[in-house]
Amino acid sequence: MSSAIATLAEEQLHGAAARDPSPHDVTVRKLFLVLHGKYGNVFAGKFATGELNDEGKDKGVLAALRVWASALAKYPGPIIELAAERLKASHPEFPPSLPQFEKLCDAAMPRQTVAELEGWKRLPAPEAKPVTVELEPLGDGKDWARVIVARVAAGDTTVRHAALQYAREALGLEGRQRQEVQQQDNPQVSQTKGGGQ
Description:
single chain, mainly alpha, 11 helices
């Protein structure tokens, strides 16, 4: 890739035929204007050779423009613009070099998952349909729990584990209430501790 960039710079310096600018080249030209506006001739002077083309533009600056455009072609325009906005914080006094600006662009790129990087296809969402059960309500305030337990018993996989646990506790099938039910059924278990003879 570096030989391709060197060829671009060489063509620009020695007057190869001009090509029509791509939309990406226009973005990089705007970037150069922004960088020149923020840093003045400190930025443009890094590239100026003093040799002008037929249009009166410095060939060194044009060569740098083509090199930057080629190197930044892998980034979409909005990413380049976002990186340019972040220059105030990262480079307040001196303009960035091309590798430094590429790092800003890399940091502005949205993060990708391993699946996206590897090109894996997404699996379709599972089709889980809730199971409806019909129970005769007892009116004791625990009908909701009976419905949840019955749905799970009927094979419903959409019930959350916590909902099932709360329903089982409400019905006395596990947890503290189960111990209370056992104590009521077996009075020997409910003897008091420590106060014996």
